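[User] I have long wanted to understand how a fold can be written as tokens. Those tokens are not coordinates but codes from a learned vocabulary of shapes. Could you go through the record with me and say what the backbone is doing? Thank you; the sequence and its tokens follow:
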Amino acid sequence: MRNGSSGRLMLDATLLETVNDLQVELGPKFLTAKGRDLHPFEVLRALVDRGGYAESRLAMALGNGFQECVDTARRQMEGSTPLAALEAKGRYAWVRERI
């Protein structure tokens, strides 16, 4: 998942880095469990939407260690702007670029 025009969602740099780091960390186990690559968007949704469908699905696929990994990433991202707001800001910037 990269920032920029050309049809890609624009994300806060720290959020983007966190998603990429989680994908690298969780990807091999996911590939073994599911037989396909873990898409960065799945990681983003699991990170941003606490208790949501993506998080539940990844927790079932990855088992032990997944929840701790995601919770640690969330704690590291804590700041004045909630994760969901950072993601929404990027999504709406992408929409504005197209309109």
User: Anything to note?
Assistant: The chain has a mean pLDDT of 84. The longest helix spans residues 13-34. Helices lie at 13-34, 40-48, 53-62, 66-77, 83-98.
